[in-house]
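Changelog-adjacent note: as of this version, every example in the card shows the full chain rather than a window. The one below runs 690 residues end to end.
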Amino acid sequence: MAERICETCGTRNDAEARFCVNCDSYLGWDVGRSTLDGDALTGTIPKIVQSVPTAVPEPATAPVSAPVVTPTTPPASPTTPPPASPTATPPTAPAAERAPQPEQEPPRRKPARHDPPTVTVTTPDVVLTPEAPARIELLIENTSTIVDGYDIDAVDPPAWLELTPPDAHLMPGEARTVMLSLAIRPGVLVLAQRRPLAFTVRSLEDAERMATIHVVATVPPRGARLAIEARPMLIRLEDAATGSFSLRLDNRGANFPQTVGLSGDDPESVVRFTFTPQVVEVPAGAIVEASVDFVAPPPQPGAVLNRQLTISATNDEGPVTATVTLVQETAPEPVDAPLRVQLQPSTLRLLDAQDADFDVNVDNRGGHTPVTVTLTGADPERRLAFAFAPVRFVAVAGHITRAHGRVRANLPARGASASHPFTVVASDGTTDAEAAGVLEITSSAAAITTASLSVNPQRQDIGTHGKGTFGVDIDNRRGAEAVQVAFAARSDDGQARATFAPPQLVVPPGTTGHTWMTVTAPHPPRNGTVVRRLEVTASDGTQQLAGNAELTQTAPSRRGPVSVWLVILGAVLVVIGTLSPWFAQFDPLLPAVELVRMLVQSSSLDPGLIVEPALRLLLFILAITMAFGLNGKSGGLTRKSAILIVLLSAGFLVFLAIAAFVPELAFGILLVWLGAVLGYVGGVLARSRD
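Full-length structure tokens:
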């Protein structure tokens, strides 16, 4: 007998089994079972296109044979006896038998006992469907001594489960049957399965007092058979025998997987189909695509043929079919078109050259058989020579075959142009195909005619100098040949002399050559300015290029060096005079020494001793400033420094005459005044030079 093997755990089950005996996985029911010809199939899911959100079943556990109710905590042991009933009265003894009794303690009241409930499951196996919720019948007994209510909760419930607990409030010792409702959430597709469920019946008074019950819920398989759709439904083939399309297997309406085998057929039974995969397992709530390749014999040339292709998806429930319309069309028998020849390029232009290369394209795309052709060239003037490689070749049908050609002509006169039309013929022995071309050949003029000469800068003022430097450029960027030139220059008065480094240049085509021109000219007359115009030439021996330049010179001033020497000499004399004695019988360092001694002895300070050291330092600084005045344009700083030197030294003498007395002057102060006078004269000469 055939067996069913669980795809989840691999356990062998009976052929009639619906769920696995080991893991409770669904094996396939009578409707839509995953079998072909009574045998289990190993299907393949090539591509899930669309899937409805489903609640994935958790790993199944071993089936539960019967519900077991186990208290989670033992009942509390009473420490005191239970209280007596309020309505109970002690029995009445006969009066004769009553005798005085010793006084007894009142009976103690028993504490309340709170035990877990006792729960019995009447319906341990229930069936759940979206239309009909399951109702579980529970018998709950309150074993406590107090009135208690019970909350029923599911332990780790699946996401698709909805629980509606009943109202369970019981008197002490009362047992009642309640109904627990289980339902599937709306809009959720739940796979066919058997699932153990656990519930806790928990006391509302003491959450630790509870009982656990177990139920097996079965979600039966339900839904329609899968739908099949071919995309596209119309296939058109032109001059082709193979094609392909896709199949969409839609199992969104069922909660169980369906396995089918794919096959194809046509009325003539001449089409061969290839399915990838051949057997497809479509999961519950999903859409799976399979690809179909087919080979159909084409019709006669120029004919159109329609075929209806039937695709079946079959299992034990029978086939589900889809139809594809195949339209095949073939072109009529081809007609050979004549050869065509094309030159690329068709217009050839040469400059100072004799050979020109081109391509010969023999177009046999309109033909259906190869053709052997021979290439030849001709020109009406018979001045051209032709060569082809290869001369003879096979023009392949449906392609463009390329050959290489070369044409040669003599150069025209220097600076002239010539045009030569020609024709290339491709002959297969019976017909000729021609292509026309033109050879334009030009002989360039002398290289120097396309070159140019430029002088940079064109105008230069060298002042009182006797030499100037210019840059000379030869531009041969437009030329086709190298230019070799020698340089020369002359001035309009004939007194300037020019030298070049280098004196000759070879300038390749497309480049620029450069040389330096150094011009030496005598100085102009005193206090005069002269502008000399230079003509620069570059000659190749037959022709020459020319350019112009201007050189401006100024006669040098004779007073400039005198003013410089006077200022420098005056600054030196002021420095020497500053460091020399100013008064007879007085050391130049005496004021400073006396000033230090007075400061140490805290004696009264002589004003002259304070002013003289500072004045010497200031005069020394002014002497340096007078020398730096040479950097100016007009000598103003030099003259101002000389005047300050005289004023400060003379003012110091007036200060001494007022404050004390003026001793006999020594040569130091005279050197200061002499240096200041010389510096001032030098500053005046500098202004006159400007």
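Structural remarks: The chain has five domains: 112-219, 227-329, 340-442, 447-554, 559-689.
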